[in-house]
Amino acid sequence: MDFSVLNEALASKSFDKIADICDNLMLQQRRAFLFKTNGLSQFIFLATYTLMILIVQRFLWKSITPAIEERQPDLVAAWKIGQKLWTRDYAGVYEAIRGFVWSQETQPFVAAFSEIYTKRMFELLLSAYSIISIQDAAQFLGMSEEDATNYVLRQGWTVDTASQMVTVTKQGIVREQKLDPGKLQRLTEYVFHLEH
What we know:
Helix content: 55-70%
Distance between the termini: 66 Å
Largest sheet: 3 strands, antiparallel
Shape: flat
Strand content: under 5%
Order of helices and strands: HHHHHHHHHEHHEEH
Number of strands: 3
Radius of gyration: 22 Å
Strand order of the largest sheet: 1-3-2
């Protein structure tokens, strides 16, 4: 089985495409053959986590036999991450990631997932809190208190070392405006019509 397309998507950080690529790979071969020989299952699990499609991985797990689980420890470790995500055990997700020695093939994907997950947790903190303790922020971000403090300072938040509290600084969202020539033309015609 050729995993070059999957590796290219991973290298380019096109995580939104990885689930579709895994689906296509599964369709190319019988599912049992892939799970037994190529280890595609852990990539599918991690792709569904990256896209936060937890329901998919629950059904996928039910289709995997115990014999396959024994041959693929990365798969079982990926399932533990899914269990923590499902129960919203934010610190447990980081523990599950760090608590396993990932294979060479899976490790870059896990690192990418961890990075994306940390960004999502930061966005959650940004939208949900105005003030949060350093200890709680560290737990959500899966970091030590010192690392979490440095991380939030780099993001422009204010840290009060006396009270061990962080003041969340909500940054203005800069959105890229896409100019559609057709819309611009219609607007120009409309303004021209109003003036004449």
